[in-house]
Amino acid sequence: MRSKNQHQQLYGDILKGVSRSFYLTLRILPVAVREPIALAYLLARAADTLADTTVLPSEQRLAQLHKFKGFVAEPESAADCADIQSALQGQLENDDEQRLLSLLPQLFSLLAMQSEQDRSLIRQVVTTLTDGMVFDLESFPAEESGEVKALQMQEQLDHYTYMVAGCVGEFWTQVSTAHVAALSHWDSNRLTELGVQFGQGLQMTNILRDLPRDLRIGRCYLPQAWLDQHQLSIEQLHDKSNSDLARPLLQHGLRLALQRFEAAQQYLLAIPPYCIRLRLAALWPLMIGLGTLEKLSASHLWLDVDATIKVDRRWVYKMILKSLFMVGSNGLLSSWIEAETQKCLAAG
Fold it and tell me: Fewer CB atoms near the end CB (10 Å): N or C, the chain?
């Protein structure tokens, strides 16, 4: 039986250290869904640490990710995952990430102990997320090469955003319907699709925000077809003085993100008003996403790698306070979301 201290360490201290804003969302979730979602997050975060570290060359990272996927498929065999742990032992600058990797055996043990349904759902989402990390390493040049490559078509972008975020909306929906009786009336297929688009909208926001930093590690997630449409080159995106020149490209991405957030609004309003915790857990990332898009749309420093374009902590606290008064009303929430959407459009 897992100890209380182990539980607190994994779902408290470690999760808080590696999850940043997600920790806030997790804490508001109903207890019934908190553990499977937290466990899936920690496993995915461990895989992300393997994928993103520059300590290992990309070929070794790929090998470690494939081993990781094997342990996710058969967690009972992961009691000794020393190869994964030793590959980065003592080499990570982030102490929380190092501690997370040191606790991989416990994470896999917890996965094996979940109910059959939860174990299957966690396996599926973590495997898909890891496939997204493998896609990154296989599709783009090595960070140290100095080369940059763009995805070719929007279909690739949609597939990528599904693997690294849309699948989370799918997982979130399936776990919620499995554990929250109030959702038994949900049209599972429709809400799953809306959840996928919700996740894709959040990832599209991240892609737009992080474009300058991604370019510097060889990755352009905005498709070449978009660049061609707006008569832009990857080289031009490297120059921060071209932020205004590249504004049509930014607006193209903003429109796609806002379309996804229309689905997110439908998803949010489908949650019964009395399921306050579930509503808040969906509302907060949606509002943060819209707030980030508004700042991006208003910025003339979009391509500046040194510019920080994000909502600040005070904005988040004010949003949370406002949400507590509006969460139970579909009308108030719709008006709020539509007002924030109009700000994004007006700023552009």
Answer: N
